[in-house]
């Protein structure tokens, strides 16, 4: 899985570990590693489909029952599954096309230079599609499902895959040279987000290169801090004595599109970008320790003082927020909405509650961190877009406490309530928000197994929480909502808010699915018996609900060693007898995780983001060595010898048209 990726000497892979504060520093072999060793043996036996491998752990009767269940069907998804496995290409279910729509470096404007990886510059990158696409959203133009704005986050950069001449192999080990200032500038320009007009023509999606709303946002774009933290002393810097103006957004993981059609970029692993040391006894020490700041994985501080906390100690407080972008005006100033809290935001997917207030669900992706929701104070006005533009500056942030009896409480993070007082270091609401994790710690929130995407389902009223894994949870730390020690494969929690009201402060929850190979008894996975050897998965990360109200889950961290399969997109039944039946629809090339996913409002297109392809390959027998620019485990999607691997957004459509999986 990701956290044991052998290529971890490349620093961006280290970031993926989310191995922040509060984790166990011991090197004991975990259950995940023991199971992983089994998978690598099974991989050797010709993939995880090997009948002998399955028969070794499952009784013949169970296999017969599973065959019967499969024959009986019951899934609401209609397609022929892809075969799980590992190779250097993508694969989609038969009868579907998976067309690459946007690749790293693709021109986005009429005047953009063509992509030349040997002559890349920050100026070119600012006019081209960024690196490591993550969140994908679609904002229809004039209500069309075939014409709209695609909004895409660019989470991070992998210099060893991006830049020629950076890596040398010494005694079989990859060594990466320090980045030049020019390369750091390219990294900064490759971060952020893309807004680009797209249109379906004769059944195929095209980029509208001269779209007047096309825009690149980078780690240098001017943004405003808004809400309760704006102007606070703790966010003032030498470049911004007002504490209201920030340059850039970093590590935009998942995100969201609001009901009023703005684009949400969620800042996740911000700790990696900061280096240096706080002065002895600095008042931000506890705050930064709780977020793992500084981590120093990126080399930006070598060229820009603001990333050195010894020189600019407040700069990290200006990151870790949710950013809202008005896509209708390409000159609009993106706003960091501080009322929604500061942590390692995976995403912020939203839904309009019965009374018109809007509820945003947010995961804080770190081992033992929390599930949050934000409820706006004001109500959504469907008739007047402008009236909604500052809804995110005022509302209540809650953190979840999952009780053993299947009930759930949302605890408000409000200054003056409970322990959130000056005696405990919170002089006002700004302190509660800047130190969201510290405040949630005091409230006794439930420590989860890395909360990733959280998706409300407007059709059923249920909410799905992806918990990707937590190899550091010890047996004595197991609880009802996180029931497996050394949770290598993650699980999915389903929430039903009281009275079907998304603003409710109480609800019920249950575990919908424990992930991993159901044929290995020690894993304890709970896929339905109708789930095939291709259909199970581990490490759920992003998810989507299609227009029919069905759940789709994409994964991060599988691979030859961890599960004998690459990451991909799985269709997961949530209702009736087929509940917890999962089917593989699409899978990615070696080294990649799958982000997005996103369905157009007509369910005729699924957009998926293939992130960090070729980041890894040592544990794949067919490659078996470090993967880097000159020697890549895959050159997806171009497969040209002079073209590096390129993270890309893929549009999946049914051949001949029609709704997906119907
Ligand atoms: Fe950026 Fe939590 O994945
Ligand atoms: Ca993610
Ligand atoms: Ca999602
Ligand atoms: Ca992840």
From TrEMBL:
SUPFAM superfamilies: Calcium-dependent phosphotriesterase (SSF63829). InterPro entries: PhoX, TAT_signal. It comes from the Bacteria. Residues 1-29 are annotated as: Disordered. PROSITE patterns: TAT (PS51318). Residues 1-10 have a biased composition (Basic and acidic residues). Pfam families: PhoX. This is dTDP-glucose 4,6-dehydratase. It comes from Mesorhizobium muleiense.
């Amino acid at each position: 899985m990701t956290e044991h990726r052998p290529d971890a000497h490349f620093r961006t892979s280290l970031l993926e570990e989310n191995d922040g504060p509060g984790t166990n520093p011991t090197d004991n072999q975990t259950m995940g590693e023991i199971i992983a060793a089994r998978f690598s043996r099974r991989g050797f036996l010709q993939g995880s489909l090997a009948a002998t491998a399955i028969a070794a752990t499952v009784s013949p009767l169970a296999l017969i029952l599973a065959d019967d269940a499969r024959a009986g069907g019951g899934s609401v998804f209609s397609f022929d599954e892809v075969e799980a496995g590992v190779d250097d290409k993508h694969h989609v279910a038969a009868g579907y096309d998976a067309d690459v729509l946007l690749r790293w470096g693709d021109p986005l404007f009429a005047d953009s230079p063509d992509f030349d990886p040997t002559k890349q510059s920050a100026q070119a990158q600012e006019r081209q599609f960024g690196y490591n696409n993550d969140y994908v959203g679609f904002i229809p133009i004039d209500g069309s499902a075939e014409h709209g704005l695609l909004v895409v986050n660019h989470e991070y950069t992998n210099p060893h895959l991006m830049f020629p001449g950076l890596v040398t192999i010494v005694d079989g080990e990859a060594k990466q040279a320090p980045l030049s200032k020019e390369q750091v500038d390219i990294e900064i320009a490759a971060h952020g987000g893309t807004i680009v007009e797209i249109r379906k023509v004769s059944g195929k999606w095209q980029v509208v290169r001269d779209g007047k709303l096309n825009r690149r946002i980078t780690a240098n774009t001017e943004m405003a801090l808004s809400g309760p933290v704006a102007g606070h002393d703790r966010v003032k810097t030498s470049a911004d004595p007002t504490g209201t103006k920030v340059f850039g957004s970093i590590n935009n993981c998942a995100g969201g599109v609001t009901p009023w059609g703005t684009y949400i970029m969620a800042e996740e692993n911000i700790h990696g970008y900061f280096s240096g040391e706080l002065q002895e006894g600095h008042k931000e020490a506890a705050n930064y320790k709780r977020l793992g700041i500084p981590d120093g994985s990126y080399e930006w501080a070598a060229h820009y003082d603001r990333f050195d906390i010894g020189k600019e100690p407040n700069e990290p407080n200006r990151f870790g927020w949710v950013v809202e972008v008005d896509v209708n005006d390409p000159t609009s100033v993106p706003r960091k909405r501080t009322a929604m809290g500061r942590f390692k935001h995976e995403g912020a997917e939203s839904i309009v509650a019965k009374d018109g207030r809007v509820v945003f669900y947010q995961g804080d992706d770190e081992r033992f961190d929390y599930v949050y929701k934000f409820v706006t104070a004001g109500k959504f006005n469907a008739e007047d877009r402008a009236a909604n533009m500052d809804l995110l500056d005022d509302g209540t942030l809650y953190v979840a406490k999952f009780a053993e009896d299947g009930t759930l409480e949302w605890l408000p993070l409000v200054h003056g309530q409970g322990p959130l007082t000056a005696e405990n270091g919170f002089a006002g609401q700004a302190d509660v928000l800047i130190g969201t994790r510290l405040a949630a710690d005091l409230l006794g929130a439930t420590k989860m197994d890395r909360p990733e995407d959280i998706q409300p389902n407007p059709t059923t009223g249920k909410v799905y929480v992806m918990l990707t894994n937590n190899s550091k949870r010890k047996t004595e730390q197991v609880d009802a909502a996180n029931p497996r020690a050394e949770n290598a494969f993650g699980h999915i929690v389903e929430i039903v808010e009281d009275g079907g009201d998304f603003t409710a402060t109480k609800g019920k929850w249950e575990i919908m699915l424990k992930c991993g190979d159901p044929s290995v008894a020690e894993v304890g996975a709970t896929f339905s018996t109708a789930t095939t050897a291709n259909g199970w998965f581990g490490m759920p990360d992003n998810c989507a609900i299609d227009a029919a109200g069905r759940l789709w889950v994409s994964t991060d961290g599988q691979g030859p060693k961890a599960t004998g399969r690459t990451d991909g997109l799985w269709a997961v039944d949530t209702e009736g007898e087929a509940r917890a039946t999962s089917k593989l629809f699409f899978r990615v090339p070696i080294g990649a995780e799958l982000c997005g996913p996103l369905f157009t409002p007509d369910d005729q297109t699924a957009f998926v983001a293939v992130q960090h392809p070729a980041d890894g390959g040592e544990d794949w027998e067919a490659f078996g060595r470090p993967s880097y620019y000159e020697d890549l485990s895959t050159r997806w999607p171009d497969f040209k010898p002079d073209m590096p691997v390129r993270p890309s957004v893929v549009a999946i459509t049914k051949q001949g048209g029609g709704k997906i999986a119907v």
